[in-house]
Specification:
The protein has 160 residues and is α+β, with helices and mostly antiparallel strands. The protein is 27% helix and 27% strand. Strands 1-2-3-4-5-6 form a six-stranded mixed beta sheet. Helix 3 links the parallel strand 5 and strand 6. It starts with a strand and ends with a helix. It binds coenzyme A.
Length: 160
Amino acid sequence: MNTVFRRKCHFVYPLEFLVTFLDDFAAVVALSDKMLTGFFVGWPTPPSPKVLSKLIRNSTYSIVAIDEAQDRCVGYVTALSDGILFGYVSSLEVLPEFQGQGIGQDLVARMLKKLSNVYAVDIVCDPDVQPFYEKCGLRRCASMVTRNPAQIAKLNSGLD
Ligand SMILES: CC(C)(COP(=O)(O)OP(=O)(O)OC[C@H]1O[C@@H](n2cnc3c(N)ncnc32)[C@H](O)[C@@H]1OP(=O)(O)O)[C@@H](O)C(=O)NCCC(=O)NCCS
């Protein structure tokens, strides 16, 4: 279903920007790599825009926030789901200069709505982000993880 939401946000400067939330597959697939720059802030090996583009396309659900004036993606959320019992919000990010405007909370709310057909929705995050997710209506829970950083470099070189 093609659902396009438009919402006006106000930047910290006396400058207004319009953020459009897109979640239909055609629109998400049409995003250029150029529109997906600036993400993975602070990562030792940041995935390239091409890798992010593939991640967004391959996820079960993806929602992107677009700053129309700059024709640029300023935030995204992705999720994986079996459509039965379990959904997993796999990534969420808002560009630093657009944070603190409610975009992150909006992206999570929209994704939780998409995942409302499953029993459990899980998100793994660092402790400093837990208060944010609590504001989104989630509760704290222990988790176990493993990571393979070499895979990022492999993807970056393989998809460039
Ligand atoms: C976490 C993140 C997505 C939040 O996006 P955002 O657009 O800045 O968040 P919002 O403006 O929607 O914030 C909603 C509320 O959460 C609060 N909040 C946001 N980030 C927070 C944090 N790290 N700790 C505590 N509270 C936070 C805001 O102050 C706001 O509270 P308010 O409603 O009382 O004003 C963003 O900071 C980000 O991209 N961080 C880097 C990547 C990351 O950590 N992603 C999560 C991976 S699991």
